[in-house]
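User: Predict the complex.
Assistant: Input components as received:
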Amino acid sequence: MTTRVGVVTFPGSLDDRDAQRAVRLAGAEPVALWHRDKDLHQVDAVVLPGGFSYGDYLRCGAISRFSPVMDTIIEQAKLGMPVLGICNGFQVLCESHLLPGALTRNDSLHFICRDQKLRIENANTAWTRDYSAGQEIVVPLKNGEGRFVADQHVLDELEAEGRVVARYLDLNPNGSYRDIAGITNAAGNVVGLMPHPEHAVEPLTGPTTEGLGFFTSVLKQLVNA
Amino acid sequence: MSLDTVKNAEQTPDAAQPWAELGLKEDEYARIREILGRRPTGAELAMYSVMWSEHCSYKSSKVHLKQFGEKAPASDAMLVGIGENAGVVDVGQGYAVTFKVESHNHPSYIEPYQGAATGIGGIVRDILAMGARPVAVMDPLRFGAADHPDTRRVLPGIVAGIGGYGNCLGLPNIGGEVVFDSCYQGNPLVNALCVGVMKHEDIHLAQASGAGNKVILYGARTGGDGIGGVSVLASETFDATGPAKRPAVQVGDPFQEKLLIECTLEIFAEKLVLGIQDLGGAGLSCATSELASAGSGGMRVELDTVPLRDSSLSPEEILMSESQERMCAIVEPGKVDRFLEICEKWDVIATVIGEVTEGERLEIFWHGEQVVDVPPRTVAHDGPVYNRPYARPSWQDALQADAPTAERLLRPATGEALKEALLQVAGSPNQASKAWITDQYDRYVIGNTVLATPEDSGMVRIDEETNLGVSVATDGNGRYAKLDPYAGAQLALAEAYRNVAAGGAKPLAVSDCLNFGSPEDPDVMWQFAEATRGLADACLVLGTPVTGGNVSLYNQTGDVAIHPTPVVAVLGVIDDVTRRTPIGFAEEGQHLYLLGDTADELGGSAWSQVVHGHLGGLPPKVDLERERLLGEILIAASRDGMIDAAHDLSDGGLAQALVESCLKGGNGARIVVPAELDPFVFLFSESAGRAVVSVPRSEELRFNDMCGARGLPATRIGVVDGDVLEVQGQFTVSLAELKDAHTGVIEALLA
């Protein structure tokens, strides 16, 4: 049976088709999910893609978090379903309180699009098992509000529990606290990531193919589960 | 204020009307009265004033633009030509591509962020209205002097507006230009280009036919923004003492536009529309009159059904509003319900505002009373046509005589001086890296970007199975055009053509944005006449028809016009995007070849501008047959794997191309000056029809044979090697030093 990975489209989602492509290239079946539809159509995992859902109005991710589809995703995530939020998807996960902290305006005050070096800190999550801890990868980063912030004790807790999934290397592009590019929940099934691994899955269009690991990881996780 | 109905207009023939304030000339107002056989109502006057504006009617440029049709080369690729929202080109495998470049100059000076943002929004809707999914955007930009205080206001706002709108829309920004010159100080140029892809059968046109069919307005509500944008703003010279024109700039909402795109594409997929038009300049006046004019029959519109953001708007204001993110569709009655359902799915407001009628009139009602009764063609197409006087400027000869000869401008004579000049040019605002700007644009979204800035052209894959792709480059050198507008326009085309070919794509078609000063100045009108003649002649030779574009006049403040700036976009097709050629020297050991002939041509050059602040003489010689041959060689070499890198030579000459290709590829190069050439001319001449290519050793024989057989001069000038750029016997400069000079320049100026 093919693994089914849902990709949610909110109004204003932009990288939904890219995430579907990455899922397909990883060997799974992408399933388009619609924000108004509570039904997850028997998917095994969910990707919340990048973009500007609801135009980033109010706060990034603040309106999408109340979509009917999110009710089910929040419920399933708490039961252990793998969920990956990329960029705007990360923002939605924070607004949903599935992940701690918040993403605020880049410290440069500019949108930035660049090829970003990361270090995978935690290779035990549902989405990073195909990497090794300490592995360095380059994937595109593109955001205007990607600065990860949280209280000191939350940051300490994330560090202590090994819940920092990826960190920026060489250059911190947005002023994220402790160079944090991605985090996970305590169970390791929900991951939020500011950079875009779905844009690094083909040599033709990406700086590398080093983003594919996020999508193959979840396949392995599901097959072994 | 009482409603000015048609009946009222008939009864009060002598009522005073604000035609002059709306930008109409006295004879134009008289002509409207003649057409209608009475004075126009306020609403009719509003419609005519915006549709007969320079921006919408092309009244000064029309007589020259018709050459693009008359001299158009025979092309099997053209599916839809000039006159529609955008031209459509066949790229094979059942795909069609539409593209167009447009200006949003005046609004962007007044209100940089919104002006630039809505420039993107407008061109994207043009492409969408043809039936295509927009797949990429590009922005050719011109600013005043880089170190002028006002550039610090205008540039960041424009860049943020382009990024803010385009990024939120989900379209990769894959290229464009950034040029600084004090001639653009009070008149920055913000041109925007969009490319869209569709299947042949999906082409849609702007026409309303079939009595009883419904007129549906959908998208954003109509507000009071952008009233008079095309007439008051874009069709007059800026005047330092006039009233503030900021309210004439529209305000964009990219989120609404993204919904509009997805909603419209779903409507197309279900074949629910007969005709469609976006609302841009001149808003509803334009959409209703153009749709009705292009179809058979008339149209009746109930203007009071238009959803408003501001309930106090008058009928005149609703007709003139340029509120963004709106479209107008003609739909059969049986398909209206499904149409509205799809709009509801995407949270897009849609309203039936009228229907196609048996008659031949465009009739508009306001709460049951008729406020417009006009033949739509007279509004949309029968605007005034001017044969503006033009004459070669008295100063042109003196300008051309002031050639940058070795006697007039001191040339670097030593290796050290050459190195100094190279660093100076590479680090000047026009030649420096534009990464600070382009890194604010998303180039990855949609996942099909194969080449993007700083490559020679932007290239996107359009079919993931077959790897079919298209590429676009835009170019335009105002300095060349100032020296000789005929040659300048041809050089703009030649450069864009060369850039597309250098990436490995075959050039197919052209779109142009012609940015000039006031048409009421005979000098400017001569520049315009010469540039259009040059471009039309060159398109004929290169076999690339003009598919559409835009004219922006009145780019001047007081008496001072911008350099004539024809911006030319060339679209190319490539059968297999995996064969594309990038600019970076990525492989050590490969030999570098200079293709084409180098002559002592420095008129209008980057060197003369950067080092001497000089503009004079003649631009480089145009040889279109050579451009075509060079293009064919570059495309064949790319397809057959004979070259691994190619970079066209343009401003800054070979020196600048080497700097860019070394830095992009992360490798140095050892260069030998050919015996017959002066080192300075070799490095800095801007002779056209040239490129530098990197050839794998295994392909050298085959590549040389091909160039020899076709008669293209190919000179081996060096090898990719190490981490320095060395011009043997002259100087050595490290990549670190080059990078230092070439990057960080723009941000330092704006800091």
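The first strand of chain B starts at residue 78 and ends at 80.
Let me know if you want any component modeled separately.
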